[in-house]
Amino acid sequence: MILAPGAASFAIDACLSYPSETRQEWQSTIAQKGLCLTIGPGLLKSAANGVRSLISSDEDTSAPETRTACASFLAEADGLLEFSIYPASIEEFEQDILLRWDFNEKGLILTYHSAPQGFATMYREQVENNRAVSPETLEHASPTDLANAISWILASA
Questions:
Q1: DSSP the chain
Q2: pTM of the model
Q3: Distance in angstroms (rounded) separating the CA atoms of residues 44 and 50
Q4: pLDDT tens digits, one per residue of 27-75
Q5: Is the peptide bond before 116 cis (omega within 30 degrees of 0)?
Q6: What CA–CA distance (Å, rounded) separates 84 from 23?
């Protein structure tokens, strides 16, 4: 498992040109919830590098072609976003790659399935009172779908 780099940092001030009230609201929410995460431009490309560098030595190891295809998928989605959030985790499971994001009472899991199919499935949910409400699953998700889901997860409730 790879955890978000700079887990104790919050890069939004240095990276975004959004109004200071918006940045302060996000920082306040993060501080209140005790979260550590990184938000900024190019973070899905950073996650793509994390996927490329996955090294496992057990039955869960994904094929190099799967890691390359998943990294390309993330890089393409990154090109559609001004800024994004680094995944809370990047893991391999049964030769698939799983990326997980949790923020703003929302959860998102992207599963990039092993080659030769090489397609992505997204699961997203709103969390209320520690329960998932309005869960959605999208088979054969596109990089545009991921970009839209990242924008959704970053949007205030």
A1: -EEPTTTT--THHHH--S-HHHHHHHHHHHHHHT----EETTHHHHHHHHHHT----STTPPPHHHHHHHHHHHHHHHTT-S-EE--SEEEEETTEEEEEEEETTEEEEEEEPPTTT--EEEEEEEEETTEEEEEEEEEEE-HHHHHHHHHHHHS--
A2: 0.74
A3: 9
A4: 545 444 544 557 888 889 989 998 998 876 777 888 888 999 999 999 9
A5: yes
A6: 14
